[in-house]
Amino acid sequence: MKKQQLHNNFNVVGKPAIRQDGYSKVTGKAKYADDYRFDGELYGVMIRTKASHALIKKIDYSELNENRFIKAIITADDIPGSKKVGPIKQDQPIFCADKIVTPGDVVAMLVGEDVKELRKLTELVKIDLEELPVLDDPQKALENDSILIHPDFKTNLITHYPLRKGNVEKGFKQCDEIIEQTYTTQLIEHAYIEPECVTAIPGEGNLKVKIIGSIQNPFTTRKVVASVLGYGLNEVEIIQAELGGSFGGKDDTMNILSARAAIAALKLNRPVKIKYEREESIIESYKRHPYILKYKVGFNKDGKLKAMKIDLLADGGAYSSMSSFVTWRSVVQATGPYEIKNVHTDVRVVYTNNPYTGAMRGFGSPQPIFAIESLMDEIAVKVSKTPFEIRKLNGFKQGSLTASGQKLTGHEVTLHKVLKKAVEVSSFDSKWNDYKKASGKKEGAKQSYINDSLILNKNDFINPDQFWRKGIGLALSYRGCSLGAEGIDAAASYVSIQPDGTVYLLSGLAENGQGMKTTFSIIAAEIFGISPDKIVYLEQNTSRIPDSGPTVASRATLMGGGATKNACEELKKRLIKLLVTIWKLKSGKDLVFVNNEIILRSKKSKRIEFGELIKQAYQQGINLATVGWYAGPKVHWEEETGHGSAYFTYVYGCQVAEVTVNIGTGEVYVNNIWAVHDAGKVINILGAEGQVYGGLTQGAGYALWEKISTHNGKIRENNFDQFLIPTSKDIDAIHPYFIEGKEKYGAWGGKSLGEPTLELTAAAIANAICIATGQRFYNLPINIEEMLLRRKLYPESLTRGSTS
Amino acid sequence: MKINFTLNSQNVSIEIEPNLRLLDLLRDRFNLTGTKEGCSIGECGACTVIMNSKAVNSCLILAGQCNGAEIITIEGMESDGKLHPLQENFLKSGAIQCGFCTPGMIMSAYALLIEKKNPTDEEIKEAIAGNLCRCTGYKQIIDAVSQSAKEIKINT
Amino acid sequence: MIPVLEIFQPKSVDEICRLLKSNNGDTRIIAGGTDIIPGFHIDSPRFAGIKRLLDLQLVDELKTVSINHQIISIGAAITFSDIITNPVLNSYLPLLVKSSKTIGSTQIRNRATLGGNFINNAPCADSVAPLLVYDAEIKIKSFTSEKIMKLQDFLVKPYATRLNPDEIVTKIMVPVPSTDFVGDFYKLGRRRAVSISRISLAMLMMNEDKIIKEMRIASGAVTPIGTRLYDVEEFAKGKVCNEEAFKEIAIKLGERILAVSGLRWSSEYKIPVVQQVCYQLIKGIERRSL
Q: Which terminus, N or C, of chain C has the lesser number of Cβ atoms within 10 Å?
């Protein structure tokens, strides 16, 4: 198999390595949340209403009285501690007691031994509701007479972030051209293949409760469960089961499910499991924010950007969740990676009765990138430049100032490198010229053939050899690494060398499938000069390792990698000190740890096996276990002006998409995507390539097919027959390339890749479609109806043919 | 009702409720939890097993339909402590991320290799089109299947 | 949710007919189960009240393909995977094979059956349009009777057919099509695999000296059920093979489908596109007829 080999001076870093969890995953032995069985376990099944917005008048459980299948009915009354939770604002109830604000809301949970019977019994609960008007349009949320989703807050505004730089009005006056455009992006589901599942087990001894589940951020879950139960953090233990995909999605929902299970487990003193079916997973879990993005840009005849006014509105749905953090990334990155003197940005996120939105891979970047990268191509057309030229002219260079006034220094700004590489490997310029010419000349290129009348005229028919058009498009981005000014940014890693020279490793971050365990093992193996298979990565358990913050924001490699490297280097220092003594050296600088031994560089015959050295270290009573810590440097942000050093470092990426469009049916086939990313040092090459393949496949789904639509707040697409994610046949080929820009942070400068790979793809595809058809599309997803009608079509009713 | 069938080369006989799905029979009665449930309607393929040499969604088959059938699950792929070439190559190609789709994916690939010794990439894509993967973008999976076919051909 | 039920695995059609003899609707035949089981999962009213399932897996006589006196007989419980690899069907009924390849995933095609596809009678049943243009008839048996019916007559409305509770469809019978026919099948889905049809069209065309001697055309997904469009066929007959005529036929098809389906939420997209697709199909067939 042809594998990209990165040329470097490392022994393990950047070389293919077998995953830590690989064997258990290919044999079916890996234990996901639903694969755990506990003696005497009970199941919890949720009770929901049919409303999107309503007051709960009365809930009548009388038909369930004395029912032999029911061990308990758990409601808000059973909660000893916090009844509402949330990462920023505590606005989301564990169980709704008086009001429903979105269809995913849960009023109670039936607990019993037979989950099938429990599901049937949910029908017997009578809920008396007073329906309230439904607010499903975020654009109406801030109107004076709008109904309020959470009246206590006196407004539907969750957060407003302004950013002001220079004088945008003056800037517009001084420039030659102005373009104003509005873009929209859709609500989508994470679509992890494993639905939510968790079991709470009553604790033993001083531990009050133990929770095993499909949990993305165990420390966050611990915090929520402890607060709901009124316990100390050390009385609650969270174990992460093997996680069947998350992409940001198994956070808030899982915290709440864990709390529900824990309440029931403690009440009944038995293990309680909650396992969601796909439909309820989609109905209840949070999703990616839909945005309405208004851009006004002023530029000179040569294409130089002068001023940009940006107004973004995000639909937060019924609960605030991570909305304030998600939209903060948008305000930082809304201008794209371009130098602009005058910027005026407002980002607002509001409450509605729609499904709530929170963290999803990309986290506030795919939406503005779709807008700004579409806009850059429009600007290029106005000034007769190519997409490459317009970006080259305006793109960030070393030392450029971002919109928030941050000077890009301290790391290598590789924006122009990734752009140049992507354009070269995809033969962008020549294809772009050819395809543009082809689409420009062909009949029907400018507009869809569909007119008001449903019946075609004879000249509407398209010649068969002109049915398919090719297009190519690119998109460019910069992305702040890790949490930035969102929060405290530090992580821990525990490393312990055993007497035989094998190693235990555990970090406070979580394996969500991305390959973090393997990446950290590679780091440890490199430092100790041993093979990665000598390292056993331990089970993620909140009792065993310091809280390292959430595994989000593509921060694991950077932060946890840094912590792992620090821990290993500390132990290595101790080993070197010992060896200096044993070998009577002046210093340890000539000692090399490689191939399972330690060699004295100046005298190659002087060598000792790693295991032998460890044996001696143990005999000398040397401590070979430590917790490494890695904290990011200080960053700051001024909320009122949007000024500050948002993130301590950045990554850069460029993707080129080549598509074929059927202008008769609106189908788009994705032929090729070239992805060039600077993620800093590539540590785990198979994992890195996997992030590229997977991330941009999700990005292609976002561009073309994926959409959760709602009707009065209720979801239509509640399973994989309606919510269409890409299959193996939907993208022909993907070509990843890595550029390793210089970076001082993290392990050898290993930064972020998970989200950068996803955020660009929809924009690149949209630009490619524009070249193929001669038409620009402003609304994601660009599905078959959007292609031909410039809008989406939905059935009036939620019930489908087969269900009615 | 009582059913008899072959499960990973063993003859088994079990008393069941007829409305139990094959998926539940495997997971709950035989504790073969390698077979996963992702959608319950035959769209995601996480529950794929081999039934009479063909890949099927075990969420769409009732246990009562399995009398006399020959069923192979992911747990039956390793033989004499040795991984099947597909499993080996999934490891080597980096074809796994979260791993939840992996057992079903390997079973679909296995069914393909029973039928076709020399599958093209297009045939591999078609064979696993019913197995949704949200993590990997499929590329390394396709590489792993292709490489396995080559190795199996050499060894037989 | 899957109801509590009994499952029988009969070994012959006779045995099935006996088991169905006094069926009041609580006994249902299950072939592939790719419709019934997801239906149970979402508590579809179409499968409410079922207490007994008759599984067809062991009934070999329902899976055979034979050709006799210019009639191709296909067992109703043949799977789509078996259709795809069957040499008789590949040489005589290519449109049926082509449509079968577009159905679901490999896993679904390994279970789903031809009979199940039209007995379910969903608008998007992909094999129906090809069967209709091939003038398929079906054989229906009960304990007391046996009858043959045109497939088009069997299909009543979405999810409804003329099948009585005591009956089973045993065979699909298709006259061997004239070798003068050239045809094609087209399916439009939202994705390149495992997608539900938005539009499907099956077409057979026979030209003689640049005159359309016969055209057969049937639609799926764009009409409430799979529908043979006789008016359009009549309109096409005798037309000279040229651009004008092809476009007129496509327009006529659009008008006819609009009349059959009425205005629906999806019409704005589907009606224009089905005309475009129809024209493409005719052009492609014409090219291959030369």
A: C
